[in-house]
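One thing: could you explain this record?
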Amino acid sequence: MTQPTPSFKGRPAAAGAASPRQTLSYLQSLLEARGLRPNSKLGQCFLIDLNLMELLLKSAEISTADLILEVGSGTGSMTVKLGEQAGAVLGIEIDPGMAALARDFTAHLPNVRILQIDALKSKHRLHPELIATLEDGWRRGSFQRMKLVANLPYVIATPLIANLLLTDLPIERMVVTVQWELAERLAGKPSTPDYGSLAVFVQSLAEVTILRQLPPSVFWPRPKVSSGIVLIQPSAAKRQQVGDRAAWHEFLHHLYLHRRKNLRGALLPHPWVADRWSKPELDQILVQHGFDPQTRAEALTVEQHLQLCRVLTPIVD
C-alpha cells in the first residue's frame, strides 16, 4: 500500500506511548519476529547506545521549525524520536523489510514519511524522489531549517554528503554517524594523510566538527572499525565564495587523481590544463600566482585550492 504524503505542516501529533528503546535485546527480538536480519552489504549497523543516540539528537538542536532528512531509517527507532521533536521527517530506507518496520513504528506520527528508495540514483546523483519530496515539503510547510540527522550506512556516506552539498537544498546542518576514517577525512588538515579532495570540497562549503569517536561495541552488528559523530554546518558565505560548485567539484576530482605527484605533474593531465599549456608555460603560470610547481596539492590550504581553481578555470567563449 502506498503511504499517503504527509502535509509537512504544524506540530507532530503527540505519541500515544514512549518510543521503543533500541537496545540490543529489543532489536534482536524485533527482527527475529519479523524474519529480518541486518544486511552487511547495505551497511546496516544499528546504534544501540541510547546515550549516544541522545547526543546525536541533542547536537542537531531539533525543533518544530525543522524539516529533517534521515537516511538509513532502519527499524525506525530514531525516526520516532525525530518525529516527536521535529516539524516533519523524511526517512529514507532502501531495505523493504526495514522500511515496512519503520512505517509501522511511525504510523502514529502524521509528520513522518518513509520512502523505500536508494538515497542515491548514482554515485554522483541523489535520487530525484528524495530531492522532490524535500523541496515539496519545504514549499508546503512553514519550516525555518532543513537538516540531515542520521546514522548513515557506511556504503553511501561519502557520496551522500558530497551530493547534498552540490544541491541547492537549504541544509542548515548535518549531524551524522560515519566510519571513523571518513570522519578524519572530512576534518583533515593540509599536509596530513587525511587531507584530500573530500576535505577540501566539504570544508570549502561548510564547517566540520568531529563531536565524538564511537567504538564498535555501541553498534549491532558490530562493525570492524570505529565510527564518529560529525557535525557539518554549510555556510552561505563559503558557498558564495566557491561559486560554481559542480565545476569546483570536478576540478578537485581531477586534481587528486594523481595525489602523489607534485602540483605540475598532477595538473598536466588535468582536463582544464591538457592541450592548453606546455610544461614550461604551466610552471610560469603557477609561479606567477605564487604556487611552487614542485609542491603537492595536499600541502595547499582550502583557500589556495580555490585560488588555483580560479587561475586555471577554462574561458568559455
Summary: The CA atoms of residues 289 and 311 lie 8 Å apart. Residues 1-6, 12-17 have pLDDT under 50 and may be disordered.
